[in-house]
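Batch manifest, entry 17 of 40.
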Amino acid sequence: MIVESSNNDMAIGDQGRAIGCLQIHKAVVLDVNRITGSHYRHQDMTNRVQARAVCEAYLTHYGKNCTTEQLARRWNGGPTGDRKTATVIYWNKVKKEIK
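Output type: structure tokens
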């Protein structure tokens, strides 16, 4: 949350496409709803409890047997984000915060 939004539940990024403390895109919400059968709404990702639940469901599904680095990079770059060089910068920011 620190890396994504400086802990700001009302943060808006990516030209309005990412919202909340975890900067969640609509596609992630739809994916989690598909995976879990839940009914989250993108506009509700400003609710920290719901945003965390979506993040946890997403990473539980796509992050089986993953390292912390792989999880962070998948959160940033999608299910194969840990294979994308573009997510290395994000991981470095996360790594700095968790030390």
